[in-house]
């Protein structure tokens, strides 16, 4: 029997050797198969066939010996089971791939099915290989090398603690707690990869108290009071190379670590009730530090930065000039370029406080401030106007609530409270995307709420611990499921790596020391959560938003990445002072922005670091980073200076609530509704008025593309662009009794393209009452050219058809389709639904929290700005507009392009080059080139 066991063990241990054959053979043959697509390189077929056959054979053999390895050796746990199951599935699919390939070649069948199965096999092979790597190298094998996860165990603490404990006559409870936590830290860093819940090698688990004292297959791991009889101590003191030495993977324990474990066991193996903090974790408490006594600077931020500079041996640089500052301030606060007149006025101003006054003035421009910062908050709170989840109504907007909060400068703690304990307008944040079909346990709506709150508001990575105990923080699966349970109707069962473990979560906050969030109903729990979240004791909430605002204005957070708030700050006192000052201000976001922007630190020249690595890992603050303007800022600059780039918005803050529908003639092909063909369509609406005196009456109209408007048979006006809302005074054209609105609309497209009508009319009477009439289903239309009196009151339209509504997704909301007094402006990009142009420039889809956009230029952006049809069309439209406005005067055009886009006049050399390019009779194409060259220049693209 013993002989057979060692033979089976030997065969099982061949698994790591054999498993590389199917990996290599199947992957290489798959790559070669890709080269044969579309009938190419048929000469490779014979080689591919034999590699697939041999790869399938070794996949089956590897699965068999892998099974022997698991059954004959001390492997257990979910990770082992998952690796085994994916390995067996890979072997089965590899065999199926070989059989189907053989059949397809022999019967001259198409290779589609074979290729599909082969693709699935390779995917499974990759998963099985990854799980195998986790088994052999630890579950954090891939993630451990990431800069954000490069947390090393501090052996200096071990040495210091050991010296302290050895000098004591007897150990206090506090010292025993420290000793136990230090030993558990050693286990976590050196032993969990083999003896964690997911692997359980030798049936030994060192991840919890029960596992440690239960021991494993070879006996008790720990015998309290007797290290020499404890199996774990026996193993860690064995020499390197011994077959039983522990740990078997990675570096052996140091002499101090071994001595610490011996001392812990001999002192009774006390187990502390405190949670083990393997990774660095920021203090929750927020205490406002005292300001340094700097004599050369007065601003509180600068006092702290001055102290930092002294430590880093950095000299203060001269602040940027007024021209740079005003552009930086405008773009950071309202997202727009300063007008040339505003720049000149600011430069000429001699008031020493003019920069602070400018910041106050811009912050008081609530409309533009809100429409600029809306993009930041939409990204952070994953709020959007359309996309995944909206179709199934499993996701809802918070745009109206968010816009109002920013417009009124609602305190941040109030905003957070209303997000945690939401009303109908703000519930979209914690209301996760309801994915179609089955999802894994970490993608449920309750878990999404926990993940979104953790990342966006607390700077905590909850996603990793949604599946298993985190590899990058101290969060556990229990904690995250407890947090997600706040949002659940029923108790949640914990799933480790999507496998139920038979444990029900207990409701808790991620940081339970801040307060209890349990309650009988979801409403009870959300109310408690809203109170706990905004408590001043929750310094993490206020540090996180302060760090994000600093990052937004300076290009890099005080802590980086901004979603990992347990990382070390480059200046902790600066972050704490700003955060505490933010709370003292009443959580006033504008105060925080002003506090940063009025500092000399903000007004320093921008710094361009050598590499991305130096910004992330070896960062020393010297001033704001050079930042690219955002997709929205770029779009708004074009709209502001050259020509409006977007025709309508998805959210209109000035929208007048009107039930007007965009309607079309109802096109039918026999009994089926079809899209209308281009051409003329005729619309009518009859209505009656009482014998009241009319004070005034007006009409709004938008028709795609060309229209003529008639009231009671008389032509009132016309238009040729649907984005331009026609506004007409019709007071004198109405009468008591029957009235008729008649509209001729023509769509000038060359393909099926709906010709639509949007109309509203408002009549005010002398008695103070008013009547409104809108385009809706009560209107009638025809596509047949009617008689000459078709627009008159007496015309018989009984045979005309009821209009049809095809939907309004392509039109959005026209900002000036309102009867209110409204100064027409261009559509700000933040209010526009995701557009291919902005997507190319880096505006993200907001299905997940986006805390920081990628600023690195991409090939897609280069192609869009070089050859994009949309971009070039807008430059063409702008060129025509400018040539007309400046009467083809090349000198005026060049000067204004530079002043409006760059905030300065061109140099003599620049002017000569551009004037030569434009010529004395500038063409549309030439001016397009001028626009393009300035818009793509670094001076425009970056915030200096």
TrEMBL record:
Protein biosynthesis recorded as keyword: no
Q: Gene3D superfamilies recorded for this chain? A: Galactose-binding domain-like
Keywords in alphabetical order, please: Heme, Iron, Membrane, Metal-binding, Transmembrane, Transmembrane helix
Q: Transmembrane ranges?
A: 20-38, 50-68, 88-105, 112-133
Extract the Pfam families matched here.
Bac_rhamnosid_N, DUF2231, PSCyt1, PSCyt2, PSD1
Give the source's domain of life in one word.
Bacteria
| One annotated GO biological process | carbohydrate metabolic process
The UniProt record lists the Cytochrome c domain at 178-269
Give the InterPro entries listed for this entry.
Answer: Bac_rhamnosid_N (IPR013737), Cyt_c-like_dom (IPR009056), Cyt_c-like_dom_sf (IPR036909), Cyt_c_Planctomycete-type (IPR011429), DUF1549 (IPR011444), DUF1553 (IPR022655), DUF2231_TM (IPR019251), Galactose-bd-like_sf (IPR008979)
Presence of keyword RNA-binding: no
User: In Gene Ontology terms, what is one molecular function of this protein?
Assistant: heme binding
Q: Which PANTHER family match?
A: CYCLOINULO-OLIGOSACCHARIDE FRUCTANOTRANSFERASE-RELATED, F-BOX DOMAIN-CONTAINING PROTEIN
Name by which UniProt lists this protein: Putative membrane protein
């Amino acid at each position: 029997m013993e002989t057979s066991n060692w033979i089976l063990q030997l065969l099982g241990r061949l698994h790591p050797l054999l498993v590389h054959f199917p990996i290599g053979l199947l992957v290489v043959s798959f790559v070669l198969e890709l080269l044969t697509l579309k009938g190419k390189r048929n000469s490779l077929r014979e080689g591919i066939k034999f590699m697939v056959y041999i790869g399938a054979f070794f996949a089956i053999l590897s699965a068999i010996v892998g099974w022997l390895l698991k059954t004959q050796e001390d492997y257990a746990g979910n990770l082992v089971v998952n690796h085994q199951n994916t390995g067996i599935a890979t072997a089965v699919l590899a065999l199926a791939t070989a059989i189907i390939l053989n059949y397809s070649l022999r019967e001259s069948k198409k290779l589609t099915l074979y290729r599909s199965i082969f693709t699935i096999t390779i995917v499974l092979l990759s998963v099985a290989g990854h799980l195998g790597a986790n088994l052999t190298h630890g579950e954090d094998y891939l993630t451990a090398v990431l800069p954000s996860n490069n947390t090393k165990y501090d052996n200096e603490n071990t040495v210091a603690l050991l010296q302290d404990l050895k000098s004591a006559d007897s150990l206090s409870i506090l010292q025993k707690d420290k000793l136990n936590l230090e030993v558990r830290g050693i286990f976590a860093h050196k032993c969990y990869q083999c003896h964690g819940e997911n692997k359980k090698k030798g049936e030994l688990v060192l991840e919890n108290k029960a596992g440690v004292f239960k021991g494993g297959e070879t006996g008790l791991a720990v015998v309290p009071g007797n290290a020499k009889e404890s199996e774990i101590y026996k193993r860690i003191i064995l020499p390197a190379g011994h077959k039983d030495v522990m740990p078997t993977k990675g570096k052996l324990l140091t002499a101090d670590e071994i001595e610490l474990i011996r001392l812990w066991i001999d002192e009774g193996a006390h187990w502390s009730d405190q949670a083990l903090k393997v990774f660095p974790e920021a203090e929750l408490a927020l205490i406002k530090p005292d300001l340094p006594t700097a004599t050369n600077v007065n601003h509180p931020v600068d006092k702290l930065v001055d102290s930092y500079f002294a430590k880093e041996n950095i000299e203060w640089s001269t602040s940027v000039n007024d021209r740079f500052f005003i552009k930086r301030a405008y773009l950071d606060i309202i997202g727009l370029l300063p007008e040339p007149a505003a720049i000149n006025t600011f430069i000429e101003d001699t008031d020493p406080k003019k920069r602070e006054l400018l910041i106050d003035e811009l912050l008081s421009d609530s409309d533009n401030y809100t429409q600029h910062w809306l993009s930041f908050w939409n990204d952070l709170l994953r709020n959007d106007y359309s996309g995944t989840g909206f179709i199934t109504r499993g996701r809802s907007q918070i745009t109206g609530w968010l816009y109002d909060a920013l417009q009124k400068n609602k305190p941040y703690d109030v905003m957070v409270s209303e997000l945690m304990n939401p009303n109908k307008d703000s519930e979209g944040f914690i209301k996760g995307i309801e994915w179609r079909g089955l999802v894994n346990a970490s993608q449920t709506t309750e878990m999404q709420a926990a993940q979104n709150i953790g990342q966006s508001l607390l700077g905590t990575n909850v996603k990793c611990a949604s599946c298993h105990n985190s590899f990058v923080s101290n969060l556990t699966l229990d904690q995250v499921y407890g947090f997600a349970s706040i949002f659940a109707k029923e108790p949640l069962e914990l799933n480790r790596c999507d496998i139920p473990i038979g444990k029900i979560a207990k409701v808790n906050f991620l940081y339970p020391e801040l307060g209890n969030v349990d309650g009988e109903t979801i409403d009870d729990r959300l109310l408690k959560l809203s109170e706990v979240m905004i408590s001043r004791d929750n310094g993490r909430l206020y540090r996180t938003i302060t760090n994000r605002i600093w990052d937004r204005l300076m290009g890099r957070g005080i802590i980086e990445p901004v979603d990992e708030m347990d990382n070390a700050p480059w200046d902790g006192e600066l972050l704490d002072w700003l955060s505490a000052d933010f709370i003292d201000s009443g959580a006033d976001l504008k105060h925080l922005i002003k506090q940063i922007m009025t500092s000399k630190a903000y007004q320093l020249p921008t710094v361009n670091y050598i590499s991305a690595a130096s910004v992330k890992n070896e960062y020393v603050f010297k001033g704001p980073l050079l930042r690219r303007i955002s997709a929205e800022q770029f779009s708004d600059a074009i709209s502001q200076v050259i020509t409006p780039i977007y025709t309508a918005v998805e959210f209109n803050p000035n929208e007048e609530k009107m039930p007007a529908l965009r309607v079309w003639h109802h096109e039918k092909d026999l009994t089926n509704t079809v899209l209308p063909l281009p051409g003329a369509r005729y619309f009518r609406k009859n209505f009656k008025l009482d014998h009241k005196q009319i004070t005034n009456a007006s009409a709004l109209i938008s028709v795609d593309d060309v229209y003529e408007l008639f009231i009671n048979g008389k032509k009132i006006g016309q238009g040729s662009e649907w984005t331009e809302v026609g506004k007409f005074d019709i007071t004198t054209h109405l009468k008591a009794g029957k009235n008729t609105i008649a509209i001729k609309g023509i769509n000038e497209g060359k393909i099926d393209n709906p010709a639509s009508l949007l109309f509203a009319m408002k009549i005010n009477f002398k008695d103070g009452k008013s009547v409104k009439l809108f385009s809706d289903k009560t209107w009638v239309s025809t596509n047949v050219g009617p008689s000459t009196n078709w627009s008159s009151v007496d015309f018989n339209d009984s045979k005309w058809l009821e209009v049809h509504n095809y939907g309004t997704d392509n039109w959005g909301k026209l900002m000036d389709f309102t009867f209110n007094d409204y100064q027409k402006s261009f559509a700000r990009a933040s209010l526009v639904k995701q557009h291919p142009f902005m997507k190319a420039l880096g505006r993200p889809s907001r299905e997940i929290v986006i805390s920081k956009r990628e600023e690195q230029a991409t090939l897609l952006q280069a192609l869009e700005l070089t050859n994009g049809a949309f971009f070039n069309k807008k430059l063409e439209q702008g060129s025509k507009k400018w040539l007309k406005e400046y009467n083809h005067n090349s000198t005026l055009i060049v000067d204004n392009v530079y002043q409006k886009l760059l905030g300065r006049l061109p140099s003599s050399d620049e002017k000569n080059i551009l004037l030569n390019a434009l010529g004395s009779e500038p063409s549309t194409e030439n001016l397009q080139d001028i626009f393009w060259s300035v818009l793509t220049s670094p001076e425009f693209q970056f915030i200096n």
